[in-house]
Amino acid sequence: MSFEYIEITDPLYVENKEQTGEENYIMVRAKQYSDVPIKIPNWVPQAHCFTTEFKRHEKELLKAEVYPDDVIGLQSAALHFSFNDVKDMPRPRFIKSHLPVSMLPKRYWEVKPKTIHIRRNPKSVAVSYFYHSQGIHYRGSMDTFLRSFVCEHQFYSPYHAHVIEYNELRDCDNILHVSFEEMKRYLPSVVRKVCQFFGKAYSKAELELLYQHLSFKSMRDNPAVNFENPKGPTKGEPFMRKGEADGWKKELTPEQIHMLDEWTKERVPNPEHRKLFE
């Protein structure tokens, strides 16, 4: 077996899992990770939170085909795709995923497709993730969700380890690192960086059209990316809600902000790594 499955026994999770609709969560740790060229001495991957459904797909994940013209969008925060969807995609494929470093398919490290890793302020992630989860299955309060989030018992947690591990692959020339906040505040700069990464050159007029196309308003109205279809959230807030870099300031109480800040301080003692979460 390539993965270790660990039951969640945390009292907060056990107490709330039926009420919140999270009865089938489980921690999963990769046991084969020697191919990962990470620069953390004596690195051992942490367990990550998934559902028991992961067990059905572990072999598919390990043996998943990766092509040189694939473009992987990795977000730090559900696989956004099913394995059948990926297999049926015409090439070149754009695959969006939240998989941690240790769980990328073996072929990924052999083929090294172009990859963009996007990180986001953890307070912003927490708020966005709460509303997204509400739209799918979550039935608890924001406060309960946040406490579960800082206990690393929300889907794809732990968050900080995910971001730090990808950051320690920064010397891999097939991976570009950007942040959500950077895209919101300096979109033209990020677009130029991405164009350079893919070896593309566009005229000023073409870039202006691209800036408009990539604006939050345009993307919110674009059915190709806004998930307003039967495969997306079924109730509650839309998938693309507000798109604000600092929207968490309007949503979180001072006590919740303090809790999330202390969580980051505890999980990220390295000052250089802590800059990734500002």
From TrEMBL:
PANTHER family: SULFOTRANSFERASE SULT. GO terms for molecular function: sulfotransferase activity. Keywords: Transferase. Signal peptide: none annotated. InterPro entries: P-loop_NTPase (IPR027417), Sulfotransferase_dom (IPR000863). Residues 238-247 have a biased composition (Basic and acidic residues). The keyword Cell cycle does not apply. Residues 228-247 are annotated as: Disordered. It comes from Anopheles melas. Belongs to the sulfotransferase 1 family. Residues 78-267 form the Sulfotransferase domain. It comes from the Eukaryota. This is Sulfotransferase domain-containing protein.
